């Protein structure tokens, strides 16, 4: 039965997650078999020690009556058993470590690879910090649970079974007392596991929420401080952190009950054996050495219940983490290319939009009945107010999203009839939001052409007017950039422009490509971009109309449609939206 957690989620203890966790080891049957053999060897070796110790005790018959030969033999067996058990335990740890870490490594890689196959709509609607938390933190938590499951759970269960067998072989009456008290330990383990499951699941989910929020706020710390919203941010953080603390407290509280409750049950069993066994020994039903061995087995028998209870609580946490990872894997990947999709080998740059409609939500369209015909080599400018659909149109042309109605055609074919890889390879993009990864300057610029020589990279950077500041960096083109901290926003944008210049794509998309660059450098970069756009189909998204005057066609977008279209002079003469936007930008300075 599903059970709601404190923050509205639903915990499903029987949703197939454990079965899928077991499936992670489907290709590791040899290692699993070796683990089983080593587990048996460790348990048998450990449980042989009480018997051998009891025999050594029985070699001491009384004062002055010691069977030294038997004692030496028993001690030799004890030493051999200890050495063999230690070696098997070392091997078991090594094998289980490889099993657990190998399975988690494969799962983490599958999740990361799948993340790159997910549609942009999923990535836009989920916190990036939460996704990172799943792949990193949840995978680590899963590893911890798997290690305990391999190293302690089978050993504990087998120890309980074999110990009972040995105890019944020694004395059935005393063993029956132990068996009658066993349900106390079983009930304790079940109680703790049941109550900790939902709290570990909630802890894992809220931890992901908190990670996502911290990542979001750290990324926007400048805006937070500029608008003096630290108090509200801290309050939101404290609220989520309190929820995490409450859920963590409950999870830790129930898991912390493991030690005292199982110790109580274990002590109860041990005391019962000691008292009842003493009476049996006095009646001649068991030797002193046998009773000593029995007490040793009582300790061996009780300890696994403590371990199994701890493993059960840790596994609840691991199952919750695994559930989040499997949920990511279960997200539908981006729709595959059509079976007969062709490769766009040599794009001509002909683009056509036929009655295109699109909405991020099914009940609210962002674009409605958009028609546009672009001949090869044309430069198209998209202008309009924020939110009018300019960037959405670009996303449809690149097929980051598929149209809700109509069709987007490139070189006469619907973009859905081209493979995504070849379609996107034909375009070069420079966006307002720049992205520079942790790598050298050269690696960042040559992302689209990894085989480019250093001279080709430098030539592209000179054309983008980035070479000067790059050469002032500590190691020049070999300087490792740590995300965005080493460069200004304008410098990062110049690198992105150089990246596109080096790739020399057949078609271009420039979305506010010079928004972060100073006026003097912008004029120089505009010339470089003009040279790059020459002969190439280009879409230029801009708010500043000074950057689109020379476009072959300017499309003014409003309310999800192309409200006006024409050249700069034609639109000014028409006196419509474009003229109003133009005058609002330039009239005050003229």
How would you portray this structure in words?
- The chain is of the alpha/beta class and 590 residues long.
- It contains 20 helices and 16 strands.
- It has a six-stranded mixed sheet, sandwiched between helices. Strands 6-5-8-9 form a four-stranded antiparallel sheet, with helices on one face.
- Helix 2 (29-58) packs parallel to helix 6 (153-170), helix 6 (153-170) packs antiparallel against helix 11 (288-330) and helix 19 (568-574) packs across helix 20 (577-586).
- The N and C termini lie far apart (73 Å).
- Mean pLDDT is 82; it is low at 1-14.
What features would you highlight for this structure?
four-stranded antiparallel beta sheet; 16 strands; 20 helices; disordered N terminus; alpha/beta; elongated; 590 residues
Quick rundown:
With 590 residues, the chain is an alpha/beta fold. The chain is built from 20 helices and 16 strands. The strands form five sheets. It has a six-stranded mixed β-sheet with strand order 10-13-14-7-15-16, sandwiched between helices.
């Amino acid at each position: 039965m599903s059970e709601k957690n404190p923050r509205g989620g639903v915990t499903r203890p029987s949703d197939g997650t454990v079965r899928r966790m077991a499936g992670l080891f489907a290709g590791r049957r040899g290692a699993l078999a070796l683990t089983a053999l080593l587990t048996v060897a460790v348990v048998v070796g450990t449980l042989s020690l009480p018997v051998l110790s009891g025999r050594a005790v029985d070699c001491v018959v009384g004062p002055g009556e010691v069977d030294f030969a038997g004692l030496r033999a028993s001690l030799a067996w004890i030493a051999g058993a200890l050495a063999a058990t230690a070696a098997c335990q070392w091997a078991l740890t090594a094998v289980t470590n490889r099993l657990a870490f190998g399975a988690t490594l494969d799962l983490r890689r599958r999740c990361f690879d799948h993340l790159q196959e997910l549609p942009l709509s999923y990535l836009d609607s989920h916190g990036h910090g939460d996704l990172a938390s799943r792949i990193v933190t949840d995978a680590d938590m899963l590893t911890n649970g798997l290690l305990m499951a391999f190293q302690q759970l089978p050993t504990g269960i087998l120890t309980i079974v074999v110990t009972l067998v040995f105890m019944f072989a020694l004395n059935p009456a005393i063993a029956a007392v132990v068996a009658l008290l066993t349900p106390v330990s079983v009930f304790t383990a079940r109680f703790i596991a049941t109550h900790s499951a939902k709290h570990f699941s909630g802890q894992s989910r809220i931890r992901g929420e908190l990670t996502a929020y911290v990542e979001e706020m750290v990324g926007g710390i400048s805006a937070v401080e500029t608008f003096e919203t630290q108090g509200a941010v801290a309050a939101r953080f404290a609220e989520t952190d309190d929820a995490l603390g409450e859920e963590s407290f409950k999870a830790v509280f129930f898991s912390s009950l493991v030690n005292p409750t199982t110790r109580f049950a274990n002590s109860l069993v041990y005391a019962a054996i000691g008292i009842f066994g003493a009476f049996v020994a006095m009646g001649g039903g068991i030797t002193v050495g046998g009773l000593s061995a029995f007490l040793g087995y009582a300790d061996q028998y009780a300890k696994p219940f403590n371990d199994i209870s701890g493993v059960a609580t840790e596994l609840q946490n691991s199952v919750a983490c695994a559930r989040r990872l499997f949920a990511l894997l279960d997200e539908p990947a981006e729709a595959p290319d059509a079976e007969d999709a062709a490769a766009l080998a040599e794009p001509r740059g002909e683009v056509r939009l036929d009655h295109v409609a699109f909405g991020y939500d099914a009940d609210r369209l962002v674009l409605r009945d958009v028609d546009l015909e672009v001949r090869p080599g044309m430069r198209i400018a998209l202008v309009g107010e924020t939110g009018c659909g300019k960037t959405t149109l670009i996303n449809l042309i690149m097929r980051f999203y598929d149209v809700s109605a109509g069709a987007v055609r490139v070189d006469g074919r619907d973009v859905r009839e081209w493979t995504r890889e070849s379609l996107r390879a034909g375009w070069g993009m420079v966006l307002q939001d720049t992205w520079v990864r942790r790598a050298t300057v050269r690696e960042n610029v040559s992302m689209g052409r990894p085989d480019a020589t250093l001279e080709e990279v430098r030539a592209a950077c000179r054309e983008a007017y980035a070479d000067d500041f790059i050469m002032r960096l500590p190691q020049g083109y070999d300087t490792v950039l740590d995300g965005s901290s080493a460069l200004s926003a304008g410098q990062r944008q110049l690198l992105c422009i150089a990246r596109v210049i080096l790739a020399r794509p057949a078609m271009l998309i420039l979305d506010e490509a010079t928004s972060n660059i100073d006026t003097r450098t912008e004029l120089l970069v505009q010339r470089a971009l003009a040279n790059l756009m020459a002969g190439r189909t280009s879409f230029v998204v801009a708010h500043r109309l000074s950057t689109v005057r020379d476009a072959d066609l300017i499309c003014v977008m409003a309310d999800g449609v192309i409200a006006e279209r024409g050249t700069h002079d034609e639109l000014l003469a028409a006196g419509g939206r474009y003229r109003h936007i133009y005058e609002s930008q330039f009239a005050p300075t003229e």
